[in-house]
Amino acid sequence: MASKRLLKKDVNYVMGDIIDAAYIHQMANPKEDPAKSEAIVDEAIKEYDALITKINRRDVENKQKHFKEVQSELETKANALIEKLNAL
């Protein structure tokens, strides 16, 4: 079973890496519109907040199942953000 602490670290690292990649893209391509990469950063922050809120829920009966669902949701959302970032 994934612990709450490790799951929070995963969310932090994954979303942080996506935000870093968006800023690196913005610095590497200064002539492109920065609003597109800023939108990805804003979306990553919003998803981070939503995932941390789900992890911290206390009214969960089966924690193991709940954490697995959050982990799969993290993968899905991270892949979607990475696809948007690659499309820039």
How would you summarize this macromolecular structure in one to three sentences?
With 88 residues, the protein is mainly alpha-helical. The protein has three helices and no strands.
Summarize this structure as a short list of keywords or feature phrases.
88 residues; mainly alpha; elongated
Description:
By secondary structure, the chain is mostly helical. It has one domain. The chain has 3 helices and no strands. Helix 1 packs parallel to helix 3 and helix 2 runs antiparallel to helix 3. It is elongated. The termini are far apart.
Q: What is the CA-atom radius of gyration, in angstroms? A: 15 Å
SSE string, helix = H, strand = E? Answer: HHH
Largest sheet: none
Low-confidence stretches: none
Shape: elongated
Tally of DSSP helical segments: 3
Distance between the termini: 37 Å
- What is the arithmetic mean of pLDDT? 92
Assign the structural class, choosing from mainly alpha, mainly beta, alpha/beta, alpha+beta, or little secondary structure: mainly alpha
**Tally of separate domains:** 1
Helix content: over 70%
Estimated share of beta-strand residues:
under 5%
Number of strands: 0
